Amino acid sequence: DEEIGRRFAQSLPRQGIEVKIGAAVKAIRKEGATLKVVWDTPDGEQGLEGQMVLMATGRQPYTAGLGLSQLGIKMDGRAIAVNEHLATNVDDIYAIGDALGKNMLAHVASYEGEVAVENALGHPRQADYHAVPSCIFTQPEIAGVGITEKQAKDSGIPYKVSKFPFLACGRAVTMDETMGMVKMICNAKNSKVLGMHIMGPHASDLIAEGVLAIQLGGTARDIAHTIHAHPTLPEAVHEAAMGQLEGSIHFRRM
């Protein structure tokens, strides 16, 4: 979600982290005991020296050397082609994980493993990806599931956004981790949960409630009318859901 991204970017300078946007890395050079990264910007070439460089350029399917062509397994580019049961075109051969080139996340691969094994054992089950959580284990953490506010706007569906800051969550205050918020995107007509995005303490844990709501077709009313233990971080999710209805109790609408 763009708003979550902006808020996170604003938090980085406080941690001594500088972000360079619109920079295309040209080279990484070893200069004595240091490494120098050189990149191009609209203002010209820039560089920075450091002791270590982390390259985080994403993932790609690793299927080379598996003998797939010899087995006659169909490919989708560099990824293995499978059906909704994660079966390949060759009987009794299934594929999961990054090799599919879809949701390259550890928890998705684990889920796909369960689906593939059940199908292999004769228990039909389809892979369902409509409620996949994404988590970023930064400080503070970021997590999201479902559509973003921009996607909701672009789709043309009537939607409503509610937010609740951790600054107003008692447990977050006692933990001294008040940076961030819970943001909920719901259908404006029936309060069905379409997306949830969190930046803050234990966001990767809290997102599970949003995942379950989307998976089951739940509404903000379902969450708002569910008792949440106090004092806990999930109360922030509860308050965001209340914001979709009559309004949050402990904070004005953001």
Task: Summarize the entry for a quick read.
The protein has 254 residues and is of the alpha+beta class. Helices cover 27% and strands 23% of the residues.
Write the layout of secondary structure elements.
Layout: H1 2-11, E1 24-31, E2 34-41, E3 44-50, H2 68-71, E4 75-76, E5 79-80, H3 106-120, E6 134-136, E7 141-146, H4 149-155, E8 159-165, H5 170-175, E9 181-187, E10 193-200, H6 203-215, H7 220-224, H8 235-243
Antiparallel strand pairs: 1-2, 2-3, 4-5, 6-7, 7-10, 8-9, 9-10
Structure report:
The protein has 254 residues and is an alpha+beta fold. It has three domains: 26-54, no CATH class; 79-121, no CATH class; 133-244, FAD/NAD-linked reductase, C-terminal dimerisation domain (Enolase-like, domain 1, 2-Layer Sandwich), CATH 3.30.390. The chain is 27% helix and 23% strand. It has eight helices and ten strands. It has helices at residues 2-11, 68-71, 106-120, 149-155, 170-175, 203-215, 220-224, 235-243; strands spanning 24-31, 34-41, 44-50, 75-76, 79-80, 134-136, 141-146, 159-165, 181-187, 193-200. The strands form three sheets. The chain has a five-stranded antiparallel beta sheet, with helices on both faces. Strand 4 and strand 5 form a beta hairpin. The longest helix has 15 residues, at 106-120. The two termini are 16 Å apart.
Number of strands: 10
CATH topology of the largest domain: Enolase-like, domain 1
Please identify the structural class as seen in this structure: alpha+beta
For the largest beta-sheet, the strand count, sense and barrel status come to:
5 strands, antiparallel
Treating each run of at least 4 consecutive H or I residues as one helix, how many helices? Answer: 8
Low-confidence stretches: none
* Proportion in helices: 25-40%
